[in-house]
Amino acid sequence: MSTLEQIRQRPILIISILGLALLLFILTAVDRPGELFTDNHTVAEVDGEKIDYMDFQKRVEQQQEQLQQRGYANVDAAQVQEYVLQQMLNETMMHKEFERLGLQVTDKELSEAMLGATPHPYVAQMVQGTGLPSAQMLYDMAYNPTKNGIDPQQAQQAQAVWNTLEKDTEQMLLSQKFITLFQGTLTANKLDAKALFDENASTSTISYARKDFTSLKEEDFPVSAEEIKAQYNEEKNRFRISEPQYQLNYIAVDITPSTEDLAAAQREVEDAMMGLRLNPGTDAVSGNSKFYVNRVSAPASTLAPALRKAVTGMAVDSAAVVAFVDNQYTIAKLLDVTTSVDSVLLDMAFIDENVAADSIIGLLNTGAKAGELANAVVQHQDSVWVSLLAPGMDINLKENLLNAETGRYFTPANGNKGLTMRVRSRKEPVQVYDVAEITYDVIPSSATINKLNSDLRNYITTNNTAATFVSEATKAGYQPLPATVTPSSLTVNGLSDSRGAAKWALSAKKGTVSGIYSDDRDSRLLVVALTDVYEGDFEPASSERVNSYLTRKIRNRKMAEKLIADYQGKGKTVAEYAAAMGVKADTTQVTFGQAYVRNFPMYESNLIANVAVAKPGQVTGPIALNSSVVVFNVTNVDNSGRKFDFENDAMVFNQREGASSFERSLPAILLGNKKIENRIQKFYSDRQ
Which among 404, 593, 605, 653 counts the fewest CB atoms within 10 Å? Predict the structure, then answer.
């Protein structure tokens, strides 16, 4: 039988061999073949719902852009990413709840919210942020570009803005529907409102004697491991976690100028001051990159307070140190004092480019109002104050505004296409100070930075375990601080540019110490030690935080039992109990609905509850509180409050105990016992 015939008779075998050969070829052709079988697009997953990395990254970029537009130039990228991912996780859980409840937004509801006679306030606010007067204009720019003379590229950009707004508005309306349903689940009836009213309607005055637990020695009240275990099991759900917890201790060293650096900087500033006084303008510092010169021309009223105080008493060509704050010197040199118009009041209008501008300007100058020429005037704004001394003010436009006839529209020399304006009025001329504001930042020298690095490196070399890293820190002049990171964490305790240290912890061996990390501005050194890892459903009783809480609670209970046994029956009046306790009797007022009682720590609920049921004139106690025992006597009950008002008391109930009080915890409520699988660290390098 020929070879070809044998192949024909065994097609499945041959296909399998070819498939295996192809797979082996692919595995050897790629750098990391294991990634072919993993999900490389999911940045996080909750309750079976995945968040795609590309969607996440788009939201991150949008958030960063918004922050930059608001003036936040140095926001840590890791903090933005962490915030955005948490928002997307919350939204994912909310959307799943929307689907479960069958909530939908109809086309009519969406259209009414966006383009109705009265657009939704959210839509109006978002549109105003684009600089446009209405959602209708944004829609026309996107889908009727010829109406406003918009070119195709601008129309495409407008479409992207509109589509995003439409999507966000739909989600906002869904959220409103959900919140309406949610708020309807826990609303006050008449009994609820009346009970809340009764709780706050009367105020009891009490005399009391209180013995604090600090009067006892902690070592006399040991807490056993068995007691901690029993208390832990009783309160276990308090310590539930949704993802692994990595317990750290960290040392952060700020890189700041040394004493020598500050002294050298002071000498350099003094030399510069001498040069500024002897030489014209700012020639004395123009060749020194350490000095930054900012030219300011403004009336005294708009200058910064410290600068205003300095220059208004200076002679022209004199210089002075205005301030030294946060290792930055501010020097002012007064270059000139002139008189000028500070600002003008304008009316502005944009004329459609397809209309003869001269004829429209003529109509405006003969009494027509811009708002009445809607077909020709695309946009208009009246009574706008414009500063003629603003940085970047065009010199030609400034001349136009200074010399134009008041009350008449004109086309400015350097105006935008279709722009016309008129000067309503000008402010009276004021003194204008021409000032050179010179700043000098004192920065750490290379010697200072090298020493800080060297000292910290020597410390972690000598103390290279988590235990000694913490125990020896104070002796070496360092302050170790605790922190917890999770796969969701992109920073250590919120420190900027600390992603590398957080990422190190996720794969480090317990008990080890990291290397040194610096931030992007080289202003801080950071070292972390991994002390423990909690990977179960609950933070264990061995956790320092949990163990401390449980130990304190058990010990306080034992101390209370001891003090109650010591003073039980030691008096018939509060004064007698006070004498037995060795404390001074005092008075205070208690209302059942309050969280804080004067002279007591916050949230002493046991005191409030016992006062509420105590009979006036009867001594009660000693009873255990959170950190003391107390004996009290109700001496007076004041019921002269306001009358019951269902509307008001129902509103208060809803805020304190109804749905409104749960809204802030809604993400946690929806998460419940669900697990979050967070892979965000896999998508970024240490410093991205």
Answer: 605
Q: Which two tokens stand for residue 430?
A: 């004021």
CA distance 434 to 346: 26
Distance, in Å, from the CA atom of 151 to the CA atom of 670, rounded to the nearest integer, reads 46
Nearest alpha carbon to residue 314 among 448, 434, 430: 434
Q: With H, G, I as helix, E, B as strand and everything else as coil, classify residue 673.
A: coil
- Does the pLDDT of residue 504 top 90, yes or no? yes
Tokens of 312: 């208004």
Q: Kindly state the average pLDDT of the residues 510-526.
A: 93
Q: Taking a C-beta distance cutoff of 8 angstroms, is the pair 297, 388 a contact?
A: no
Backbone φ and ψ of 146, nearest 5°: -65, -25
3-state SS assignment for residue 39: coil
Peptide bond between residue 622 and the one before it cis (omega within 30 degrees of 0): yes
Residues in the chain: 688
Which of these ranges, 129-138, 269-278, 598-607, has the smallest mean pLDDT?
Answer: 129-138
Q: Are strands 586-590 and 203-212 parallel, antiparallel or unpaired?
A: antiparallel
For residue 386, pLDDT beyond 60: yes
Residue of 503, 606, 2 lying closest to 248 (CA atoms): 503
**Rounded CA separation 103/95 (Å):** 9
Contact assessment for residue 665 and residue 240, using Cβ atoms and an 8 Å cutoff? no
Query: 319, 331 in Cβ contact below 8 A?
Result: yes
pLDDT per position as a tens digit, 296-331 = 888 888 888 889 898 888 999 999 999 999 999 999
- DSSP assignment string, 199-217: HHH-EEEEEEEEEEGGGS-
Task: Check: pTM over 0.90? Answer yes or no.
Answer: no
| Confidence at residue 194, expressed as pLDDT on a 0 to 100 scale | 72
DSSP annotation string for 97-154: HHHHHT----HHHHHHHHHSSS--HHHHHHHHHTT-S-HHHHHHHHH-GGGGT--HHH
% of residues, the chain, pLDDT over 90 = 42
* Nearest alpha carbon to residue 190 among 640, 685, 647: 647
Q: Which two tokens stand for residue 567?
A: 């003073």
